[in-house]
Amino acid sequence: MGLATLKLDEFLRLNAPEELATLTLAVAKASITVWDNIPFKSGLLAEVNPSGDTQKAIDVFSNEVFVETLTSTGCAAEIASEEMAEPTQAKGTISVAMDPLDGSSNVETNNPVGSIFGFYSKKLPTSGRNLAGSLYVTYGNMMTITLSFGKGVHRFVAVREGAGMNFELLGVNLRLPEKPEVYGIGGSKKDWTPSVSRFVDSLEERGLRVRYCGTFVGDYNQVLARGGMFAYPQMKNRPKGKLRILYETAPISFLNEQAGGYASDGRQNILDLAPSELLETSPAYIGSAPLVRELEKTVSEG
Ligand code: FDP
Known about the structure:
- The chain has 7 helices and 13 strands.
- By secondary structure, it is an alpha+beta fold.
- The strands form 2 sheets. It has an 8-stranded mixed beta sheet, sandwiched between helices.
- A hairpin with a 6-residue loop joins β1 and β2 (about 90).
- 2,6-di-O-phosphono-beta-D-fructofuranose binds near residues 186, 187, 215, 216 and 232.
């Protein structure tokens, strides 16, 4: 069988520990339901949605769909989410931390949105060093799942199959290209610290181009394909940045490292941070290793 026709379940059977494989298939199934419901739950279409139930905000809806599907696997010990104050307890062994709809403010403008999942081997909150795997879904012009279980980064794309959809292999062992081409930085320029502004000027001087869509997974996805850096930096009015360590930056940092990159909070590897709260944030600089290490140096000089 050629690589191009390898399906997600077949790949997982050969390449993932059983529980992570089961949880990933649950995410794949639920993400199709989420994607199908975006025009309805976002209020863009007034009609009754395909499942005929009452309208809910898309982020609340996605949270419910993922929690329900992940719980039903029996593999999750707990499921923590940006959308819930406390984790949902379950009976398995893997702690799942998720952002069920990353970039929800972009739904209305039809920019890419996504979902992020971290599969942790310890109770939450815990350090990214306890990640056994992570993945992100993009609901862009293609619905994709990009995943790592610590042996490279692999990508699948949703394709129609009869009345349903399936995920087929799109790429194996994805690596950040050596030459960085793009960067995207969140927040308002006026709130960036002088060292971040200085670093951004230097990126411009060496010819990197701005690519910023305002959804973390969409912006990171470009960095993974083109090389460069995504940041939601330390800001004058928000010294700990905006993005959540458990739900967002640690899972993507894990995957980014598997693709040959590096992720920092400006001082140390994001994977070494040990958040004491579920919602803890940190500044985040993620992408090509040499660039992010250089940024660390610039930031430490003040
Ligand atoms: P959103 O608030 O739309 O959910 O973590 C949330 C996030 O989006 C990220 O996806 C995105 O990178 C960031 O916030 C964008 O924030 P700014 O609008 O402040 O740039």
